[in-house]
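Lab manual, section 2.4: Encoding a predicted structure.

Procedure: take the sequence of the chain (247 residues), apply the prediction step described in section 2.3, and record the output as structure tokens. A sample record is shown.
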Amino acid sequence: MPSDLHHEETYLVRAYEIDHQKRMTVPALVRLMQEAAMQHVIKLKLSVWDLEPEQVAWVLMRMQLEVKRMPVLNEELTIRTRPTGLERILTFRNFWIYDAAGELIVEAVTHWVLMNTETRRLSSIPDWIRERFAQLIPENVDGLLPHRDKFPSMDQVDYRTDFRVRWHDLDFNLHLNNTYYILYLLEGLPASWLSERVLTGLDIQFKLEVRKEERFDIEVQTLTNNRFLHRMVQEGKVLAETVSAWV
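Recorded output:
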């Protein structure tokens, strides 16, 4: 990828980012991806500080993640990211994560929208952002393509756990940080499964905001031997849902 069209960050996997097997956790991995994206939009002058005067902010709507292997403690990672598409109200950003040997170990594609920070509703993309993106988006993307299909319906609940949003779960938009959505959705699985298995794929859609002190349930249905449907539910409303795959 040409250096003028993508952004690259290098990180070391820290002790506070790993599980009991010294593998990086999925929420920690996504945090690093989003940090790389933040540094890129700062450079592009499309960050939170540039959007604040227009009372809009970027909000993650969907993410697909494919994992060939999870990074481990003290491993050096290189994260490459770039915008890869623009539609009526959606923008797309891809990620490629490499180990020190240059091997691709994780890929992702994310869907983003603009939210009006006053009304908390989706906002159209201003012309100046469209013009900026027109200079950044490639004709062809050597990466994951965004999914368009709907999630399966939940026919039964095999596991249910209730949670409450804490202050340190919030982001600068004062709603539940999207990495905590992932944390809580995966937390709905039994500890024995999380302890013994490794995530290989995740498709998550964020539907509604969750604020401080609000309560919600995580419901999980087994789809196959290694695939699950997870939902975050509050008073009958689905706040987020994901399909996870494991080995």
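Check your result against the sample. The chain has a mean pLDDT of 93.
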